[in-house]
Design a protein that fits this description.
Elements (H helix, E strand, L loop, with lengths): L2 H5 L4 E2 L2 H7 L10 E7 L2 E6 L2 E8 L5 E8 L3 E7 L7 E8 L7 E6 L3 H13 L1
Antiparallel strand pairs: 1-2, 2-3, 3-4, 4-5, 6-7, 7-8
Pfam family, one: bPH_1
Length: 125
Amino acid sequence: MGFIDGLLGNASTLSTAAVQEELAHILLEGEKVEAAFKLVRDLIVFTDKRLILVDKQGITGKKTEFQSIPYKSISRFSVETAGRFDLDSELKIWISGAELPAVSKQFKKDESIYDIQKVLAAVCM
């Protein structure tokens, strides 16, 4: 997927080596990026230890929030696919003890939601 897909809210797969380098300042020593997806400016990163959600804020994207969720804290997740009239897909992640989802991300109609679901299933099951 290209630049236009990213602007439209479609997630695209990123090079794990590039993300490893970009997030080197927050990764633990020996922690490896296993999969990464870009959604507009935000990142969904799966490492061998945790899920990292990168939320770039503001016009320039200089202000950045890094949300780290250890896999053992994820109690469940759901994926809602796009339909005929509702064109958005949605990913929700609950953490232990929470009634409401801790993470809710919307995607435009694309197939990458299935790839993200597969990675989540692999690390949480």
